[in-house]
Write a structure and sequence with these properties.
Layout lengths: L11 E10 L2 E9 L5 E6 L9 H9 L11 H5 L4 H6 L1 H21 L4 H7 L10 E7 L16 H13 L4 E4 L19 H14 L4 E5 L6 H13 L4 E3 L8 H10 L3 E4 L6 H9 L5 E2 L8 H12 L15 H14 L5 E4 L10 E2 L4 E2 L2 E3 L9 E2 L1 H7 E4 L2
Parallel strand pairs: 4-5, 4-10, 5-6, 6-7, 7-8, 8-9
Antiparallel strand pairs: 1-2, 1-15, 2-3, 4-13, 11-14, 12-13
Helix pairs in contact: 1-4, 4-5, 5-12, 6-7, 10-11, 11-12
Length: 395
């Protein structure tokens, strides 16, 4: 139900993109009604191997001229099924972006910040925090930039972790196992994992025992190697073990890893919808699920995931967001709305001008993001930033 009984009728669609580094492009789109209400979303195609903007354009055509009262109208008006969204990631990403843009627009129509809109449409009492704690994902800052290759040595990991700690973050995350890809030539712990362990030990030495280092494995292992790696991570003082195998495609193997592991097992960044994340928890596959606002269904669905799971499994929802400032802002609204107990992910130091992409500027200080004033997301991709550093198009 709409908060005020009003609606949003989109008529115009446009896209923009900014390349932060050779491997990272932040792709955005705007859905507007031509009279001043503009909803925005961020989409990505790096992990999916296909462009998302044509899918967004096709789905948006069904929305033009329609009186939208809910972000879920993109699903009903396009006759999409839960099975399609759970199994075809490019479609889920396009739908998630559109749901974000529609929720942003509807919150503006209701004259509410998105965090308050999320709580209002679901009768959530109380007031949400306007400051959202972040953890620092240092991995992308350690990859090649336009100025040349960055340092993937253990010393490079240590230096970036130290920089994050000095900036006020109390948790860092890295993905150190560049050399690994199952199957491996030897049994037990793969020889290829030793460099990754050296990177972890170097970063943890800087972070210290009172602060947290998380490790993302990007599903590079199999059941045997993941089980062999777990005690080494635990001995190194790692805070969680993220996606040793793919939790959606290799559910049975990950359940076996979780059953034997003494560490927290996290993952499912590519999952869509409350039902999937709820099942992963009920089936004892994961200790912490990681919905990503770009893939899970947008900020409304992310809020519902947290609202559903956190009361049953406290500390079970940690939003995944190694993305651009628009996705971080949408994720922060959802995180604040359901009251997450785990900090929100933030990919630090990819581009020193990152904060300039949004108007008003992204504000992060001492490890906290401050939600901007204003209705909806409260921030917009700045056309000046696009003109200076990116490109714009229509489809």
């Amino acid at each position: 139900m709409p908060v005020t009984g009003e609606w949003f009728t989109p008529t115009e669609l446009s896209f923009s993109a900014i390349r932060a580094r050779p491997e990272t492009e932040w792709v955005h789109f705007s859905l507007s009604d031509g009279s001043g209400i503009v909803g925005q979303g961020e989409i990505t195609d790096k992990q999916l191997g296909t462009s998302i903007s044509p899918i967004v354009a096709r789905l948006a055509n069904r929305l033009r001229g329609q009186k939208l009262t809910s972000d879920s109208d993109v699903i009903t008006l396009n006759n999409l099924t839960a099975e399609q969204l759970e199994t075809y990631r490019p479609l889920a990403t396009a739908v998630s972006g559109l749901r974000c843009a529609i929720a942003d627009a509807l919150a503006q129509v209701a004259q509410l910040p998105l965090v308050d809109y999320l709580r209002a449409i679901h009768d959530h009492d109380g007031k949400a925090d306007r400051k959202v704690q972040l953890y620092s994902n240092i991995n992308r800052a350690l990859k090649p930039t336009f100025d040349g290759p960055n340092d993937r040595s253990p010393e490079g990991f240590a230096e970036m972790a130290e920089r994050a700690m000095e900036a006020g973050f109390t948790t860092a995350k890295c993905a150190p196992f560049d050399e690994c890809r199952a199957p491996f030539s030897n049994s037990g712990l793969p020889r290829e994992a030793e460099m990754g362990l050296d990177r972890i030990l170097a970063a943890k030495a800087v972070i210290g025992p009172d602060r947290t280092l998380l490790v993302d494995c990007h599903s590079r292992f199999d059941l045997e190697s993941a089980l062999a790696l777990e005690p080494r991570l635990r001995e190194a003082g790692v805070g969680w073990y993220e996606e040793p195998v793919n939790p959606i495609e290799n559910t049975d193997d990950l359940r076996k890893i979780r059953d034997k592991a003494e560490m927290t097992i996290a993952g499912a960044e590519m999952g869509y919808g409350v039902a999937l994340f709820k099942k992963l928890m009920e089936d004892d596959v994961l200790d912490v699920v990681m919905p990503d606002v770009k893939h899970c269904g947008g900020p409304v669905e992310a809020y519902l995931i947290g609202r559903e799971l956190e009361p049953r499994w406290e500390g079970s929802v940690s939003m995944h967001c190694p993305s651009g400032p628009l996705s971080l802002l949408a994720s922060a609204h959802a995180t604040a709305a359901f009251g997450a107990t785990i900090p929100l992910e933030h990919a630090v130091y990819e581009a020193d001008w990152r904060h300039e992409v949004l108007e008003p500027f992204e504000t992060i200080e001492d490890g906290f993001l401050t939600l901007p004033d204003g209705f909806g997301l409260g921030g917009r991709v700045d056309p000046v930033a696009i003109a200076m550093r990116g490109r714009a198009w229509t489809e």
